[in-house]
Specification:
Blueprint (H helix, E strand, L loop, with lengths): L2 H4 L2 H7 L9 H15 L4 E4 L7 H6 L4 E5 L2 H7 L10 E3 L11 E6 L10 H14 E12 L12 E7 L2 E8 L4 E9 L5 E9 L3 H10 L3 E6 L13 E7 L6
Parallel strand pairs: 1-2, 1-4, 2-3, 4-5
Antiparallel strand pairs: 5-11, 6-7, 7-8, 8-9, 10-11
Helix pairs in contact: 2-5
Amino acid sequence: MRQEDIWDAETAAQYDTPGVGAFAPEVLDPMVDRLATLAAGGRALEFAIGTGRVAVPLSGRGVPVAGIELSQPMIDVLREKADEATIPVVNGDMATARVPGEFSLVFLVFNTISNLLNQSEQVECFRNAARHLTAGGRFVVELGVPALRSLPPGQPARVRHAEPGYLAMETYDLVRQHMTSHHLRFGEGREAHLFRTPHRYVWPAELDLMAQIAGFELESRHADWTGGEFTDESAAHVSVYRLPFVPS
């Protein structure tokens, strides 16, 4: 499965869920608040900007935002909300694409670094963030903690969520650190729709090493956008990495 094929026009048209799920105010508002603070009056760059779920409200808060996005159909949906002058976007890979200018903040949310399916690409993503940042700039990564403890003994899969008409499950390749997320939606009859996304899961310690390779230091890590304590029971983390200031 290529990322370009997954995030096609059909997926882009159905991606937004205004007011609910990832688009709910209780999800978005704390994220936008924190990112606006971390931008510290400078420009922000979102890797994998998608349809603008985060970028549009962040721009509305007065933070100049640009983006990188691999999927042209996702950019097309974003363009229905904000034009190129308001939120400029480069169509390309977040591990290699360049955006003109410098930024005080680069951010990558909603587990999207795991869409890069090998370690070297993930390291290059950190390096690309560093290339865009001014000295002292921050790179923020929101990422789930691998849920391997919840796997049934000897089984490579787990059901993550089940409700009438919808089933979400994950299958794991423990050797390659790969996880595939499967989303099944059922109609009234025999029909069903399957949406799958592949990921390379990353432990926080490995993520910190990637950051170190790219010249970052870990500034903070919390369990959520409101600053909750990160513990061994946390299902996700928001990690803030910072480039050191260069002595004058």
